[in-house]
Amino acid sequence: MAQGTDLSLSLRPVSLRGISDLFRREIRAGKSGGKSHLGGTGKTFPYRRLVAIIARLPDRPEATVEYFVPDDRKAGGAFVSVTGRVRHISVPERTLVMEDGTVIPLDDVVSVASEIF
After folding, report:
1. Is 105 exposed, middle or buried (0-12, 13-18, 19+ CB in 10 A)?
2. In this predicted model, what pLDDT tens digit does every residue of 12-49 receive, in sequence order?
3. pTM here?
């Protein structure tokens, strides 16, 4: 290990309030690439529901996540709905990972439903 490297900073847990604040700042700044209102559906990025899921990740909450999958060949795409247990949410990578291995970009999430809210 290099001298002066402090690994405790990278292993420190992130507070839920910090995650919620990060989502709010990014939505206000438009960093979601304009995808917070996909296809004129009027649905906003569900950051509060994602924060609730993060708080219960040790319990492996079951959720239904609807997200947009762009078409590779032409403009547009499709809305996909996946139901399963949430394994991991990465704020730096902006992804949600389901237990079955499905990786969902947070910027493409349209709605989240779960029995916990």
Report:
1. middle
2. 344 555 666 666 665 555 544 444 434 444 445 587 88
3. 0.65
Kindly list the structural domains of the chain, giving each domain's residue range(s) and its CATH number in brackets, ordered by start: 8-114 (2.30.30.100)
Closest CA to 66 of 11, 99, 112: 112
Question: What distance in Å separates the CA atoms of residue 26 and residue 79, rounded to the nearest whole number?
Answer: 23
Q: How many CB atoms lie within 10 A of CB 91?
A: 15
Are the C-beta atoms of residues 91 and 101 closer than 8 Å to each other?
no
**Residue 110: closest CA among 76, 68, 70:** 68
Beta carbons of 45 and 32 less than 8 angstroms apart: yes
